[in-house]
Design a protein that fits this description.
Shape: globular
Strand content: under 5%
Strand order of the largest sheet: 3-4-6-5
Number of strands: 6
Order of helices and strands: HHHHHHHHHHHHHEEHHHHHHEEHHEE
Radius of gyration: 28 Å
Structural class: mainly alpha
Length: 570
């Protein structure tokens, strides 16, 4: 009887449901992971920076920055505008090296005099010069994270930042007092701000203009992206106006008229003009900060250019020093540079050099994610609006770089791992169960490949091409041997080969004797006299002809320093 009554009650009154436990929120997790990724990149860059001797370009930039600091004039290195060297100057100010402004010589000689002949410690000076670029590289990592997060949420931001922070090329050039990473990072920042301008143009377009100006105020090659940035500025303002009009119609406002559309067009053009004005302000400001009087007397000869190049230079609304710098750059483009690719030494340039070099020097997992991400950005409907912002600037800049005459390294395409890190996060938008797991596995593969290369990031090549120790067989110059291992060579000679006769062919900006290396040049001696250790930078070996090639062919390789300098025994 009681059982029947109990069942009847249960039938009439269902048992109360237990409320579902809300998902645990960990607001600290994403900032923690961002901090960890940037921390490992910091460790990689700083520990690399303290062990590397000056690369070929660095003494020029450091000496120019020191001249800015002491003389407040633009005299050296006109082919690169001042902003990047002003960033280096921030570190030089702390190092406070002794500087002799009366020294007479070209910009390379001034750099060597500053580092090796003025009583300064080149290790200390170079570390302080590199630290501001390291800090800026980390800041650009936050831009990568923010851009990808805007598109795909925190998971996309973390994935993009992981690819950025483990990129061997970005670790390499982000740890040097050079201009490639700052220029590319300013471009990426401008594009990200223009993406955000689709919703708040009045705030973000002026900021994008300042970032857009910082790029050509650092490196002139970024001028190729300026037309793209102007178009994106106009498009972002147009989209913002169109979205506002669509929202107004939803709320019952009258449909837009021809005059309204004309007004949107005018405001879009005005947005591009605001970006151009901001860029001009930054370029001029970079020169005025150095010298408010804009004095300019070239120390070295400025080549004369003709035709369309001359017209372009004359039309640029920039200081005379900037325009002379462009003339110097055009002069460089006219020189018959030598290149080296997959064992072939050639004069001139190959249009496919940069894609081939990127194929060698990019982790395999990163290459796969770049390709898949680019496809996703185009194919996935909600990501498609980002394609002009991520893929068009990358394609335009890469196309411009591929037409250049200097096949010297992937640093000329350092913008690729920045922009495509953001695009690669688009893989997470694919509606496939396996997409996230595969993307995570590939990111882990990238991380392992990068960490295995530590601390030799500059000569990195991926596993398909044999790793860092084989890069010199396929590439040269800043891809593998940029003069960075002179200090390591001195340590190795002292530890393993003390007292042996050394013959040295070194390609770099360092001074071997400063590091205790006593050596002679084998190219000036009779072949039979060259006995003992023959030490050759891998870039010099790649381009060896005549006597040097004969000496290498008749010697036995016994050691490889930093994957960039080979020791032979004769």
């Amino acid at each position: 009887m009681m059982a029947r009554e109990l069942h009847s009650v249960l039938d009439r009154e269902p048992l109360p449901t237990v409320p579902a436990r809300p998902p645990r929120r960990r607001p600290w997790l994403v900032p923690l992971l961002v901090g960890l990724l940037l921390a490992q990149m910091t460790v990689a860059m700083v520990t690399t920076a303290v062990r590397q001797t000056p690369t070929i370009d660095e003494p020029v930039y450091v000496a120019t920055a020191t001249d800015y600091l002491h003389e407040h004039r633009v005299r050296y290195n006109p082919e690169h505008p001042p902003l990047g060297k002003l960033i280096v100057e921030a570190g030089i100010a702390f190092a406070d090296p002794h500087y002799d402004p009366s020294f007479v010589g070209d910009q390379g000689q001034v750099g060597r005099h500053l580092l090796y002949e003025s009583g300064n410690d080149p290790w200390r000076v170079m570390l302080w010069a590199r630290l501001p670029v390291i800090a800026l590289t980390l800041a650009f990592g936050l831009v990568v994270f923010a851009f990808a997060r805007d598109l795909l949420g925190p998971a996309g931001g973390l994935m993009a930042l992981a690819l950025y922070s483990f990129s061997p090329d970005l670790i390499t050039h982000g740890s040097l007092a050079t201009l490639d990473v700052p220029a590319a990072g300013f471009l990426l920042t401008s594009v990200w701000l223009l993406w955000r301008a689709r919703h708040r143009p009045r705030l973000y377009v002026p900021l994008a203009g300042l970032a857009a100006g910082a790029a050509p105020a650092t490196k002139m090659s970024t001028l190729a992206a300026v037309p793209v940035l102007l178009a994106l500025a106009a498009w972002s303002v147009w989209r913002a106006e169109t979205d506002a009009d669509t929202e107004g119609r939803r709320q019952g406002d009258a449909p837009s008229t021809v005059e309204d559309r004309r007004g949107r067009l005018v405001r879009a053009v005005a947005g591009a003009a605001v970006l151009a004005l901001g860029a001009l302000v930054v370029v001029w400001a970079s020169y005025l900060v150095v010298d408010p009087r804009l004095r300019w007397t070239p120390v070295e000869r400025v080549p004369v250019v003709h035709g369309a190049r001359a017209l372009l230079v004359d039309l640029l609304p920039f200081p005379e020093a900037y325009r002379d710098g462009m003339r110097v750059q055009f002069g460089f483009e006219d020189q018959p540079w030598q290149g080296f690719l997959f064992g072939r030494l050639y004069t001139g340039s190959l249009w496919y050099y940069l894609p081939a070099a990127l194929l060698v020097k990019t982790p395999l997992g990163m290459l796969a994610l770049w390709l898949a991400g680019a496809v996703a950005v185009v194919a996935v409907r909600r990501l498609r609006p980002a394609a002009p912002y991520l893929l068009v600037p990358t394609a335009v800049l890469l196309g411009a770089a591929m037409t250049g005459s200097r096949d010297f390294g992937t640093r000329y395409a350092i913008f690729v791992p920045m922009f495509l890190a953001v695009a690669a996060a688009g893989v997470l938008a694919l509606r496939r169960r396996w997409a996230g797991a595969v993307a995570g596995a590939l990111v882990l593969f990238v991380a392992v490949s990068s960490v295995r290369a530590y601390p030799f990031y500059l000569p990195y090549s991926n596993e398909a091409f044999g790793g860092p120790d084989k890069t010199h067989l396929r590439l040269h110059d800043s891809n593998v041997d940029w003069g960075q291992d002179l200090g390591r060579l001195a340590d190795r000679l002292r530890e393993r080969y003390s007292g042996e006769r050394v013959w040295l062919v070194y390609k770099g900006a360092g001074v071997p004797s400063y590091y205790g290396i006593e050596a002679a040049d084998p190219r000036t001696a009779e072949p039979d006299a060259v006995r003992g250790l023959l030490v050759v930078s891998d870039s010099a070996a790649a381009k060896a002809t005549g006597r040097l090639a004969e000496l290498i062919d008749s010697a036995r390789s016994i050691d490889h320093i930093g994957h960039s300098i080979t020791v032979y025994r004769r």
